[in-house]
Amino acid sequence: MKSYKFGFSLFCLIAYFIQLLPNIVWQLFPPQNDVLATFDSPIKILNTLEWIFGILTIFILVIVVNKTYRKSENRAKKFLLSCGILMAIYYIGFAAYICGFANVWWIFLTMVITPPIYFGTLALWQKNLWGAVSSVIFLALHAAVVLTVII
Question: Does the record bear Transmembrane helix in its keywords (predicted)?
């Protein structure tokens, strides 16, 4: 914990808002067949833990900063490409969903697992181990909630 401090990462806050944009569109223009509105696990503790770790992951990325992190152009290119690909998949999934394509496995692959992986990639980019661990837990819980609904 010595290499971390409480601070503020504008970069991670902006990255979070990039991920949040399709959710805003979804709230403004919900699809007619909005199956995501019913994606609550019958195991209520999973819903609560998923929500807690989703918020915690964002909080850690934005507020907990690695003091030893130094920007590197080569490192940035590699992670920027990874984050860009993940967000492209996420945006394509959301666009298809808004247009009425509501296949649950498509939703799972494009809209459920990509955000936590994106946050984990951001955490690794920023050398934020706490954010990476939180995003892995969030990924497991986010997937578990959806899997308990569709299986």
Answer: yes
- 29: in domain: no
Give the domain range for residue 54. Answer: 8-20+37-64+72-150
In a domain, 88, yes or no: yes
pLDDT digits (tens, 9 = 90+) for 92-125: 999 999 998 989 999 999 999 999 999 999 999 9
- For the stretch 56-100, pLDDT in tens is 999 999 999 998 887 776 778 889 999 999 999 999 999 999 998
The 3 state secondary structure assigned to the chain is CCCEEECCCHHHHHHHHHHHHHHHHHHHCCCCCCHHHHCCCCCHHHHHHHHHHHHHHHHHHHHEEECCCCCCHHHHHHHHHHHHHHHHHHHHHHHHHHCCCCCHHHHHHHHHCHHHHHHHHHHHHCCCHHHHHHHHHHHHHHHHHHHHHHC
